[in-house]
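Dear Dr. H.,

I hope your travels went smoothly. While you were away I took the liberty of generating a structure for the chain from your last submission, since the lab meeting agenda had it listed for discussion. I wanted you to have the full record in hand beforehand rather than looking at slides cold. The sequence, exactly as received, is reproduced here:
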Amino acid sequence: MGMKLLVLATDPIDADDLRDALDGEELDGAEVLVVSPAVNASPVAFWVSDSDEAIADAESTARQTAEALAAEGARTHAETGESEPLLALQDALATFPADRVVVFTRDDEESQRYREEDVAGEAQRRFGVSVIAATR
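The corresponding predicted structure, in token form, is as follows:
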């Protein structure tokens, strides 16, 4: 039986990104749930509740990522999560008991979206599951 992996990503990632985060582990046979939070591009967009674009972006990100990982032999599912990344993780873990969680964030401070700060560390503390922080 392969590993159960939950991937939280606000931008599309590919199999190489995920393998790098997992120290070269192969994805063949893994069951992967890709969750993309519907994160607004800025605090202003959040406060004016401009969520349609955020949801569309999240759906696209989750779908593209799941397709890329499926091409490498992973069994994938994609879903859009709550705008708050920790809530998106909590919701996903309630129905998908992952062995590991990989949280992808942007690697430069200027392009990090609102509410991405220390999601991996907080998830590890809150949910008691192995969490890997990765940058794309």
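Two observations you may find useful: The longest strand covers residues 31-37. The CA atoms of residues 52 and 115 lie 18 Å apart.

With kind regards,
E. W.
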